[in-house]
Amino acid sequence: MKKTLILCTCILLVTVLLLGFVQMLVTPKYMTTSRDGALIAEYYNETTDHDVVFIGDCEVYECFTPPTLWQEYGITSFVRGSAQQLIWQSYYLLEETLKRETPKAVVFNVNSMRYGEPVSEAYNRLTIDEMRWSAEKVGIIRASMTEEETFASYVFPILRYHSRFQHLTGED
Q1: Stated pTM of the model
Q2: What's the gap between Cα 167 and its chain centre?
């Protein structure tokens, strides 16, 4: 009985590790291939609070440059932006940001208020995939899914990206 339990546990562990590896392999690498997805994930590497946090779509990350603000004015800042970031996505990113730090100011881009529903899954993924798991990530997924998407495909990206095996590169 004990040997069977150990064997089942080992098989389960190996299966979970293999599925985790395959999932990491097939999930797109926004961090290395696109600045659009990198800004969401890079925020978690920050160790200091910021004077200003910029939140919004491409107008934000194309127009504000934190290194320049620091060099010229001594203002620490970070851009939590992604392409076609929708207003409710910005809201959840702001909520997550305010749990981690208390900036002196937040620049919240409202340009995306003109969109009343998710525009495309690809843009949703740029904002959501690189977020850490939290109540905010659950909220942003529920608010942003298109009709074709499922919550499970965000929990287990392999359900969405399983066909990427055909397009793997050395980067993957």
Answers
A1: 0.79
A2: 22
